Amino acid sequence: MATAAVAGIAAAVLLGGGTGLAAGVLLAVGVHRWSVRVRPPTDRRAAREEELLIRQLPLSAELLAACLGSAALPSEAVSAVGRSVGAPLGPRLVAIGAELALGAPPELCWSRLGEQHPSLAPLARCLERSSLGGVPAVGPLIGLAQGQRTAAARAAHARVRRAAVLATAPLGLCFLPAFVLIGVVPVVVGLTSRFAQAM
Predict the structure, then answer these.
(1) Peptide bond into 40 cis (omega under 30)
(2) Dist CA 138 CA 127 (whole Å)
């Protein structure tokens, strides 16, 4: 906030007058909005990791469903899927597979995964319910994968629509003055001259 205020005051003093004041206010608002968007590198890395986890979730859920559907032990299935998908999800699944092989309670392993990574909470809840209730996890895992893919497709369509709007806004700002000068101003001038002659 202080940086934005200093930048705005500096612009106002350098340019001076009403234009300097307007430019200073605009610069202060712009600097403030930019500084709010800038995140530290650790936050950017964590956000990127969560994004990658969300991308890997549908395939991992389908692979887990296939492994568990072939009557593999949960620890073996989780380890196999962890080895087949890359980082960042793979090493986490391999670690959980090792814990399960050593006899750790499955619900504890899955709930911890969901707490550490909120984007993986649906997968953790699905496998936790399966381990507590004893019901097969194949159907819920396939449903989870389909739901995640549908959500990703919707998000991609929303980004495309937003990009289209953002791309047409500058064109509108370019053509609007031309439309006013070519289309509206001659009509107003013509009407004004007719009213002046009629008076």
Answers:
(1) no
(2) 10
CA–CA separation, 53 vs 152, rounded Å? Answer: 12
Give the whole-angstrom CA distance, residue 78 versus residue 70.
Answer: 13
Residues 79/94, Cβ–Cβ less than 8 Å: yes
Query: Is residue 57 within 8 Å of residue 123, measured between CB atoms?
Result: yes
50 Cβ neighbours under 8 A, 6+ residues apart: 117, 118, 119
| Exposed/middle/buried for residue 110 (C-beta within 10 Å: 0-12, 13-18, 19+) | buried
pTM greater than 0.85: no
Query: What pLDDT, on a 0 to 100 scale, did the predictor assign at position 38?
Result: 67
CB distance 75 to 105 below 8 Å: no
Residue 129's Cβ-count burial label (10 Å; 0-12, 13-18, 19+) is middle
How far, rounded to the nearest angstrom, does the alpha carbon of residue 129 sit from its chain's CA centroid?
28
Residue 91 half-sphere exposure, CB side, CA atoms within 13 Å? Answer: 3
